[in-house]
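re the bet — no i am not wrong, look at it urself. input seq straight from the record:
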Amino acid sequence: MLNVGAIARVGRNVYCVPIKGMSQYEYSYSNISNDIAKTIKENHPYLDFLIFELFQLNEFINHQIAHNIIFVSVEHEIVDFVFDTLKEVYPGKVLVNPTPDIFHQYWVDNMIVVTKIITEAPKGRRQKWHTKIENIMVDLMTVPLLQESIRESEYTTIFEDAFARYVVDESSLFRYAKRRAAYNKIKRFIKEKTRITLRTE
C-alpha cells in the first residue's frame, strides 16, 4: 500500500491515507545539479551526499528567488576532496563552508556551496542525493545562508504549504531537527506560528 501510494508514512509506525492533492515530495533538479551529482558519482562512487537548490523554495514563497545556490552536503572526511573535484569542473563557483560574509564576497550565480552532511539527514526516494521536504524545513531554520536568503515572514507559508501539499514524515523531520539542535525551536514554531496539526502528537 505504501508503494502504490494508498497510504503514506507520517511517523514511526504511523500512517495516513493521503487527502486529495497530497503527494510525496519530488523536485525536478536543474541541469547543473544533475551534472554535479554525475561528477561526484564518477569520482567518488561510494560517497553519500545530498544536493539542495535554493530554487526548490520558489514553490512555496511569494518573493521568488532569482539567483540559485546549490548546496552539496558530503561526508566530513571527504569534503576537501569533493571541493577539489568540483572546482576543476566549476572554477570560481565553489566554496567550502563559507560564512555569509565570505559567501557574499565571492558570490556568483549558481554558486556551489560544499558543506558537511548531517547524520540522520533523510535521503531522497527517487535518488538518494535528492533533498526531502523534511530536510528543507529543518535547514531553513538552521542554515545561516538560507536564513539570509529567505525572509522570515515567508517561513509560516513554507511550512503550511509543505504540510498541505506533501506527505511529511514527522518522525524523520524531528529526528533530523534533533541532529541540528533545533528540535524545540521547530516544534515551538509549528505550534505557535502555523495552523499545522501534527499527526504524531
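see?? The longest strand covers residues 69-74. told u. also The beta strands are 8-11, 14-16, 49-53, 69-74, 94-96, 111-116. so pay up
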